[in-house]
Amino acid sequence: MTELSAHLPQFQHGQLTENFPDTHLSNTNDNSERRRHDNSERRRNDNAESETNGQPQNNIQRVVEQDEEEDEELTLKYGAKHVIMLFVPVTLCMVVVVATIKSVSFYTRKDGQLIYTPFTEETETVGQRALNSILNAAIMISVIIVMTILLVVLYKYRCYKVIHGWLIISSLLLLFFFSFIYLGEVFKTYNVAMDYITVALMIWNFGVVGMICIHWKGPLRLQQAYLIMISALMALVFIKYLPEWTAWLILAVISVYDLVAVLCPKGPLRMLVETAQERNETLFPALIYSSTMIWLVNMAEEDPEAQRKSKNSTYNKQAPARQTQNEDAEADDGGFSQEWQQQRDNRIGPIESTPESRAAVQALPSNSQTSEDPEERGVKLGLGDFIFYSVLVGKASATASGDWNTTLACFVAILIGLCLTLLLLAIFKKALPALPISITFGLVFYFATDNLVQPFMDQLAFHQFYI
Amino acid sequence: AFFWLLSLLAASLLWSVSVQLSGREDAALLLLGAAAAVLLQELCRFACFKLLKKADEGLATLSEDGRSPLSLRQMAYVSGLSFGIISGVFSIANILADSAGPGTVGIHGDSPYYFITSAFLTMALVLLHTFWGVIFFDACERRRAGGLGLVVGGHLLTSGLTFLNPWYEASLGPIFILTLGTGLWAFGTAGGSFRNVLKCLSCK
Fold this sequence. Notes:
The structure holds two protein chains of two kinds. By secondary structure, chain A is mainly α.
């Protein structure tokens, strides 16, 4: 244990530089594995320096190899658990969005468009409509790219206060204003009489508890629940205000952008992650959902990273030295998380939260350093990913002629995409973009089910034939 | 579930293409489409088996004692169940949604028992998929073509029997008998026996 804590600073640094891929999805398991690899490597190096004859080195080599093999097994074993841990929140978010779309008609009514999508789709010709939607998508994506680059620049020049303030304003907007609108619409749908005083009290409580939970400390489950609710609200806004073809185009382009931004060496998200690694800081935890608790960082952030309290306690027992280091990091992270949230919220205004949330997610991998126990490490998924998955499924349920069949098909497709992404994560042990595979599957299944499967199933059901 | 959806996709593609080519829509084409769907489903079940087998081997090599944490039977059961669930849900979700809305069943001369027979048929189909999954995986594992042939044949028979709707006596009855028989066969394949049942019931 002491050996571990002594190596800790080196680890963290090494881990950061190694483990920061820009993806929204980072497997803390992988980080721990990395750590273990680093650990074993260091051990090997140290021993090699002290021993001159070959024999001890061979033993060390064998030990190292054994460590690595065990690490691999553990990765896969715990990888499956983390997949399930991610399935639940993604499913919950989608269920909330679909339930709202089906029952509250407000979110399917066309009440105008956002300023980011100025071209209307109510045109006379198909060509005009296609052109308008392409222009809309282009504007949206460029706004997102600009915001991401702005974020990276701010982060690089250490304007933490600005980012912080931005995140706080964003989360304020989301937690209070959007949930007020949502509550109002739900009341209208079910014809519930309500007075302003009760509503004010409810929204105030909801918002304040949300702010505390997300930006500061709170019970893990509550934080996760708030992050899911926020993602669902954001997805509903997207579904309402994006016209049809624009929405599908944006989904497709954003998954391509995600792939590029995370994996290209000059991509903004990757640079963000690398900068954070160099500085030994955690990135915006606020925009990432983590399935395990990292007590040091991002307690309040939107990261769904659920850090288990038990992990914290074991960790406390094990490495007091680490603790102080972590606490420093926590202070940093706390600030960042708020900033992230604000950024996200700000983007919600302009609806550019995704790039930032994604950046936040990418920033997350560094958090994994704090966990020592492989079981405690969790997987992190960016909130932007939640939002876009829910947008896809929500749009499918809102506008598909196949209704439930299409919705279900998209749901299964997205989950399978998530599974594959997590598998790739376990294999490559780098941060990976979580959007491309799932969104591709989802889009393929949506269009295929809507146009091909639906007529077939309709005819079969009409005659009550079963296949 | 994913594999079932893939098979459904392929079958619908086939059906749509055939409809477009022939220029008319009638029950014969539907029959063809349904048969193709059944065959493609079984094909995808086989693909699922291959994939799971590979994953199982991978898990076995990585585990500490050389054995995989999942047995083939568990995988067979889960795969069959997921096939059944997704097939059942696809069959019944829209019907359920419609049943919550206003309307009269069979007002145009169709059977008024549409909903309840749909429910029973779906239940039978889900159970059948589960049983077929178990039998199929076991037959593939032991390389017995007989089991494979019977599963495919059973599936085709079930689908064909549903084409006799709304003559419910002819379709529901045999389908339920088939379900029971397949269930007993799957139970036997999974290693159960009369004695096991007795032991289980007496809680030894």
